[in-house]
Amino acid sequence: MRTARIVALAVAVAVTFPAVAADEKEKTVISWEQASDHVGEQVTVEGRVLGIHCSPLSCLLAFEPTFNRFTAVVQASSFGDLPPEDLESRFNGQRVRVRGTIVERDSKPEIVVSKKEDLVLGGETKKERRDRQESTADTQAAAQADTLDRMADVLDRIAELTERLAAVQERMDALLAAMEQREAALAAFQSNQQAPPPAPSYGEAQPRPAFERLRTVKRGMTRADVERLIGQPLSVEAAGNGWVTYYYGFGRSISFDARGRAQGLVGFPPP
After folding, report:
1. 19-42 per-position pLDDT tens digit
2. 190, β-bridge pairs
3. Partners of 265 in beta bridges
């Protein structure tokens, strides 16, 4: 009884082991570049499709641009599950996995795909993932460097603008100071213009510097000299030929010729 059980167990192991081995062999994933080393084996080939050529008889998916190495072949009889337009749009340029038995035709390896589940999109290899990560890191570093360059350029422009604003502020301050000085001068001028005229003196002598105290009104003096010595007249009368007469009251008067020189003195003692 015990011997029979041992024999049955051995038979089960013998039957199961080849099936497991076959399953494991079927699950083997190789690169498309290794396909020629596995002719006659049922494996899964992985690679990137670099070209697709379709004819009424079949579609060839090439993993190398010349179509002279490993290809996946979809016969016209399978176009119902794998139509040519779908092959082009879905798999061209993509990384795929092809499952089936590798056969050699026209001195190159190929797998004939009859079911759509035997042709699927694949994942990235470690090298592709590393290259993509390195490319991403390089892109990020370049973007960061570009951002820093732009920030430095912006800071330079801000500094230049600040200098310009400071120069403009200095010019504005100088302009405001000049305007204040001008306004002050204008106010002083207006104040002087609005001062009341001096009162008439009736011909009396006006306070004057010591060197002029001994001077008296005499012929030949200008109107300004007369006004400085005896003050403003009570009235002024203009005559013909440019003559003008100053009247000081109490019968005093001085007549000036057309040149503005004193000629006639009435009521003033001789010098």
Report:
1. 444 444 445 899 999 999 999 999
2. none
3. 254
The single-letter code of the amino acid at 7 is V
Residues 6+ apart with CB under 8 A from 254: 217, 226, 233, 245, 246, 248, 262, 264, 265, 266, 268
Domains of the chain: 27-126 (2.40.50.140), 210-266 (3.30.1450.10)
For the stretch 151-189, pLDDT in tens is 998 999 999 999 898 999 988 888 888 888 888 878 777
Closest CA to 82 of 52, 102, 106: 52
Strands 29-31 and 42-48: parallel
Structure token pair of residue 2: 């015990």
Q: State the CB neighbour count (10 A cutoff) for residue 209.
A: 7
pTM: 0.39
Is the distance from CB of 69 to CB of 102 less than 8 angstroms?
Answer: no
Classified as helix, coil or strand, 231 is coil
